[in-house]
Write a structure and sequence with these properties.
The structure holds 2 protein chains of 2 kinds. By secondary structure, chain A is an all-alpha fold. Among the domains of chain A are: about 100 residues; about 130 residues, Alpha Horseshoe (Serine Threonine Protein Phosphatase 5, Tetratricopeptide repeat), CATH 1.25.40.10. Chain A is built from 21 helices and no strands. In chain A, helix 15 packs antiparallel against helix 16. Chain A starts with 6 loop residues before the first helix and ends with a helix. Chain B is an alpha+beta fold. Chain B has a single domain, classed as Alpha-Beta Plaits. Chain B contains 2 helices and 6 strands, in the order E-H-E-E-E-E-H-E. In chain B, a hairpin with a 4-residue loop joins strand 3 and strand 4. Classes of the chains: A mainly alpha, B alpha+beta.
Chain lengths: ~450, ~110
Amino acid sequence: MELSDHLFRRESGRMLAALTRVFGVHNLALAEDVVQEAFCRAIEVWRFRGVPENPSAWLMATAKNCALDALRRERAARVFAPELDRFLQSEWTLARVVHELFEPNAIKDDLLRMMFSCCHPRLPENAQIALMLNILCGFSVNEVASAFLSTHAAIEKRITRAKKVLATSRKLFDVTASTEFSARLHAVHRAIYLLFNEGYHGASPEKAVRVELCREAMRLTALLLEHPLGKTPTTYALAALMCLGAARLSARVDASGDLSSLFVQDRSQWDQNLVVDGLKLLELSAIGSEVTEYHVEAAIASVHAIARCVEDTDWGQIVSLYDALMLIRPSPIVALNRAIAVAQNEGSARGLEEIRAIAQSERLVNYLFYHAALGEFELRSGQHEAAHEHFLAALALARNPMEHRFLEQRVEACNRGDTQRACYGTFWDEALVSFKNHLEAEEHD
Amino acid sequence: MSEFTFLFRGRGDTAGSPEQNQKHLEKWVAWFKDLGAKGYIKDPGRPLEETGKVITGKQKDVTDGPYAEAKDVVGGYMLIEAKDLQHAADLAKDCPILDVGGSIEVRPTQTLNM
């Protein structure tokens, strides 16, 4: 029996969610110890005996037994989950209650409880995401840090603080109360969306990291869709958006490891199964009257997904979808995206006009793609000197070697007086969306 | 071919992330499979629990053991068939326990001619 990829990560989230339900959220550290213990035992036995037929069930059974040991050992000294403590303190009920809590359906709910608990209103969004990655997705502090291109110390601090907030909530989120569920669902959508974006557009140049984060976000969305209260049109829209984006993931990095934009991607590499799934999900999201930013972004992604090439793209429709997005969530970034679509539709001169008309464009000065877009349009209009300035400004903001390399090439193109779009590979396509989040985070600070 | 005993010492540092744990385990499974496929494994042995009792002396003192430091505790054993001691030691060199601070003791099993 072979282990499926990332099985331990997945099982870590499941075990931790189940154990925290039993021990209580204030005993998260104890739950983490028990998870570690279960993994140690698995390694000790499996290395000599091979991987068992059902490794997930084996791990979960081991976690359950370790939990029973811990409950018996610690019950005099600790209070466990308040609503269960009475049953866990007595030998008459202990084994039966724990057994029920480790049923597969119970664990599904536990994962959701944990997901909603991680999106605690007192936590900033970046802490919510870090916490979800750590607890639900089994990423270590180091792995979270490398995904966010941050330091171990910074992420550790963020996660430790977040866990303290989580512990003070005493009880995990109740996923059966529909009013509270719906109220918190918005924050959960947002956190998952940011997680996906971090993978899709994040600063980390490493492809593997990006794909992992996107996959985790999609897995969490799938969990939401399994829950009767989580299965809302907005969740479908979010799922559609991610499917349609993920379909293009493998084409986003070219053979030499450079980012390749929507404009130059080899569309035959797009994952057609994901495109089909995404379009289906988009259809499911259209029930009801609510139109969220996820609906609109998924719709934009679908226009790209069904176009055979850039020229074939319905840019007029994309412009009007950006108009809709401006109504729902107006920001300079969305306006910039819109300007780029306008340029595509009506030429770079119109694009420049639109960029110059962006309200609060001063908020974009630290945004690489703003300068890159200006540079690109100036260059195409034959204004080499102006283009040169803009690309230099963009270059100064490059976050990784890939972006650096790309912008250096654009600066050289200006020097050569090259107006051609030969390497018209600005990766501004949807990368813009990600920075939107950064801007909003700034606003909160 | 002669028989050798591998004694695995050290529980190893398994405090890594789930992903690292899985990678580590996968290496073990691959190493084990390779040895088995080549016919070197005579008996795959059994893992030992971490806890136990140690009985010493004429007084038959019983203590909770083992005393040894974590890195010296025997965690399992295995019987190997190899050409000679050097060959057996070479086989042990690929064992993943070495990646996590553990060690392997290779001992020729005595042949008892009775």
